[in-house]
Design brief:
This protein has about 100 residues and is an alpha+beta fold. It is about 50% helix and about 15% strand. It has a 3-stranded mixed sheet. It is elongated and about 80 Å long. The N and C termini lie far apart (about 65 Å).
Length: about 100
């Protein structure tokens, strides 16, 4: 849980807040009108956050890259004639833009 402090108070206590973050391991959220404005974190915390964000980006790129390598179907597979008769299917979907099947 982060320690919250209004920006006006944070200005007056900046040195103390820095010590709390660096030596106390705290995270400080500076607020304005009760809404979070900025956060003070140690340099070590920032490095961990950036490494986590980079790892998440790398993982997302790997997933996206592998999805891009999947070959899309050029046309939907057609049912075998025997299966159409077996299930009483009288119609077959045809892509209106597919001139080869006319």
């Amino acid at each position: 849980m982060a320690y919250e402090i209004p920006v006006t108070q944070a200005r007056a206590e900046l040195a103390e807040l820095i010590n709390r973050v660096v030596y106390g391991g705290e995270r400080v959220v500076v607020t304005r009108h009760g809404k979070p404005l900025v956060a003070l974190v140690s340099a070590a915390d920032l490095q961990r956050l950036e490494e986590g964000a980079a790892a998440a980006t790398d993982a997302e790129e790997r997933v996206t890259g592998s999805a891009d390598s999947v070959r899309p179907l050029t046309s939907p597979p057609s049912s075998a004639p025997g299966e159409r008769r077996r299930f009483g299917i009288a119609a077959e979907h045809r892509d209106p833009g597919d001139a080869s099947r006319r």
